[in-house]
Write a structure and sequence with these properties.
Helices cover 38% and strands 15% of the residues. The chain has 7 helices and 6 strands. The strands form 3 sheets. Strands 1-4 form a two-stranded antiparallel ribbon. It is globular. It has 2 domains: 54 residues, no CATH class; 80 residues, no CATH class. The N and C termini lie far apart (90 Å). With 181 residues, it is of the alpha+beta class. It holds the Pfam family PAR1. Keywords: Signal.
């Protein structure tokens, strides 16, 4: 009797999951509303971005569009509200910047086990942003705590500074600032 009831529950859940997938189908950014756009990835693997347009009347309109940025190994994904909260993200944000990685509170949330281990889309996005700045996100997350300031300094520094016109010396790190005349 119990196994028959369990079988019916499993069957009902399977049908529900199938119907839900059929209803959701493929994600097209332009069909998403402003509450699901940010941190979504279309079925083609392109990231969705929220944009603000001002109409002639002066009224602001938010629309979702497909960006040219591709997600790594993630397709047809809308980041859950739990992940958005755990990672310290905001669905109403317009674009993202690596500057947020300089904020210790944001980085702490992004590197938290709740975000880092459970939200692959958000982590992938910021992993690529950090990489664009020459920073390895797992190392930055390791630097949380006692070495957090050092990890942040690595982001702020571009790493290599071009030599001045009279010098053939290459500097690794940050060159000293010159006083104005």
């Amino acid at each position: 009797m119990t196994s028959n009831r369990s079988l019916k529950i499993v069957l009902a859940l399977s049908i529900f999951a199938f119907c839900l997938q059929a209803t959701l189908g493929e994600i097209t950014c332009e069909h998403l509303d402003q509450d699901t756009c940010a941190y979504a990835v279309s079925s083609t693997g392109k990231r969705c971005v929220l944009e603000k347009h001002v109409k002639r009347s002066g009224e602001e309109e938010l629309t979702c569009r497909t960006s040219e940025i591709e997600a790594d190994k993630i397709k047809n994904w809308i980041e859950s509200d739990q992940c958005v909260k755990a990672c310290g993200l905001d669905r109403k944000s317009f674009g993202i910047s690596s500057d947020s990685l300089l904020e210790s509170g944001f980085t702490e949330m992004l590197c938290s086990p709740q975000c880092y281990n459970n939200c692959p889309n958000a982590v992938d996005l910021y992993f690529n942003l950090a990489a664009g700045e020459g920073v390895f996100l797992p190392k930055l997350c390791e630097a949380q705590g006692a070495n957090a300031r050092r990890g942040m300094a690595e982001i702020q520094s571009s790493g290599w500074v071009a030599p001045g016109p009279a010098s053939g010396v290459k500097f690794w790190g940050v060159a000293p600032a010159m006083a104005p005349y």
